[in-house]
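Researcher: Here's the sequence for the chain we discussed earlier.
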Amino acid sequence: MAMLTFDAYSASSPGFRKPPAERGGLHRLFAAAIVNDQFRKTLLREPERALANGYLGQPFTLSDQEKAIIKTIRAENLTDLAQKVNQALKSI
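Model: Thanks. This is the structure I predict for it:
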């Protein structure tokens, strides 16, 4: 299984970027997708529904930009989704 990380903070870039510690909602989202096959399938096929339902009754604390990124990206698998989300986060 691949290890997923979000290196969305770069000290050499003075633009607005949340440090990884502030991306807890995304970390929770991907952790849920890693451990739960049904949630992963929903996230990949129906991201709006996955975000609306949360996981184990708990919503994901995501910024509006993070939600928009998750909702618009289409990916074949979780690794592909993580890579595309990471790339999109680097551009904001």
